Amino acid sequence: GVIVAVTNNLLSYAGYVSLGVILMGALMYVFGGVNEEAKAKGKEAIKVALAGAIIAWSGWIIVNFILDNLG
To answer: Alpha-carbon distance 14 to 33, whole Å?
Structure first.
């Protein structure tokens, strides 16, 4: 029970962080205007945040699957 609670909390924080980075990257992209460097940084931030969200979600699935099947 404790392991599941701690893991779920940590992974939910990772989800919130990735959502924040996606929003920040979107703002960088939108407000970059004609500055291609700012737009590229925004795109990269979105890509990295999506990868992090996928990894966090996969970790949550793996942990819950393993702990559900052990019990």
So the answer is: 30
User: From the first residue on, what is the mean pLDDT of each consecutive set of 10 residues in the chain (71 residues)?
Assistant: 82 89 94 90 94 88 81 62
Q: What's the one-letter identity of residue 49?
A: A
Question: What is the rounded distance in angstroms from the CA atom of residue 7 to the CA atom of residue 52?
Answer: 16
DSSP characters for 33-53?
TT-HHHHHHHHHHHHHHHHHH
Asked if 48 contacts 63 with a C-beta cutoff of 8 angstroms, the reply is no
What's the CA gap between 33 and 63, in Å, rounded? 42
- Other beta carbons within 10 angstroms of residue 20's beta carbon come to 11
- Residue 47: what residue type? K
State the pTM of this model.
0.78
